[in-house]
Specification:
This protein is an alpha+beta fold and 339 residues long. The chain has one domain.
């Protein structure tokens, strides 16, 4: 089942398609060991063998005071930052804010001055990571159905950095060239295109923060029509957030499963990774077990008053950014929670 896109969304996808087509010859030049026909087949296979995932923290509170899990339950859709007012990156989704500016560059102004649903951000999970395609942006994730790839745009790296390589489902040569030129840590280029590798979703978590093929999914993402499964962090089992995710699965007819989870001891976090204030925060919120996990971070944030996004985003030493950085530490230095 597909989603009917409006003119702005079609124009945004078209802008990235035009960029990818203009870069086609340069991409082939970078794929020097492969014929154009072979490169085209590999590009199609890379897309076909990868999951489209959207990472999120299910316990974060939106502008209406709801947890993300409750928002999914009530609305039946996955909303962009412009509507929720929250983000696990930078909160710049206001007129004239940084997100508006980089979307203008990436999509040739397709969303400027129009009342259209902005894209949601996730990843084309080319490695089959157990924690999703871009786990730095959330402990849990949804896996989208195959048809959503047809209304997604892709960049090798985060779009706010204006990465060189971009593509759409029918123009993936530049994405292929970018992935093979600089594969994720611990993975070889040949491994990513080996037809005999394990299917996606079966690999151990890479705990990688910075390498991902970003996906921008255009049009409304419906749980009923577009989501194949919700994969959640087990620290939310037995909590109100976990109960909401279970209700999401039942009400909107999607699968729910729990991955292996991640937890970290504060004394294993290097002070020079995200700063000594983040290590001190970890010490303060570690539970009786002496561990910090995704749910512990959410409990620490609970009850703080909501503040709207701004032109420059949140203070790096403020609670939102400090807790965000602590999640990075849990992901990077944690180990399987054993739940």
């Amino acid at each position: 089942m597909g989603h009917q896109l409006d003119d702005a969304q079609l124009a945004a996808i078209g802008a990235v398609r035009a960029r990818a087509r203009a870069d086609r010859d340069a991409a082939l030049d970078r794929l020097t060991t492969r014929s154009p026909a072979d490169a085209a087949v590999l590009a199609d296979e890379l897309l076909a063998r990868s999951r489209l995932t959207l990472n999120f923290h299910p316990d974060r509170r939106d502008r209406h005071g709801r947890s993300v899990a409750d928002g999914l339950l009530d609305d039946g859709c996955y909303r962009p930052q412009f509507e929720t007012g929250i983000s696990n990156g930078g909160r710049f989704a206001v007129p004239g804010g940084r997100r508006t500016l980089w979307e203008r560059r990436m999509f040739d102004g397709a969303y400027d001055g129009v009342d259209a649903v902005r894209p949601v951000y996730g990843a084309l999970d080319v490695t089959g990571d157990a924690f999703g395609g871009s786990p730095r942006f959330g402990s849990s994730y949804v896996v989208l159905h195959e048809h959503c790839k047809q209304r997604a745009t892709f960049t090798v790296g985060d779009s706010h950095l204006d990465p060189r390589d971009a593509g759409v489902a029918d123009e993936m040569l530049s994405v292929l060239a970018g992935v093979l030129a600089a594969p994720p840590p611990g993975r070889s280029a040949e491994d990513l295109i080996d037809r005999n590798t394990a299917p996606t979703g079966t690999h151990a978590p890479s705990r990688e923060l910075d390498w991902y093929v970003e996906a921008q999914v255009h049009g409304r993402v419906s749980l009923m029509d577009d989501v194949e499964e919700v994969v959640a962090d087990p620290s939310f089992l037995g909590t109100a957030v976990g109960a909401s995710l279970e209700h999401v699965a039942r009400r909107h007819d999607v699968r729910l499963r729990w991955h292996g989870g991640s937890a970290v001891r504060p004394d294993t976090i290097p002070a020079d990774f995200r700063g000594p204030t983040v290590v001190e925060l970890a010490r303060r919120i570690a539970g009786e077990s002496g561990l910090v996990d995704a749910a512990a971070i959410g409990r620490s944030l609970a009850g703080r008053p909501y503040t709207p996004p701004s032109l420059e985003g949140d203070d790096e030493l403020g609670p939102l950014q400090q807790h965000k950085k602590l999640w990075h530490c849990v992901l990077r230095f944690g180990s399987d929670a054993g739940r």
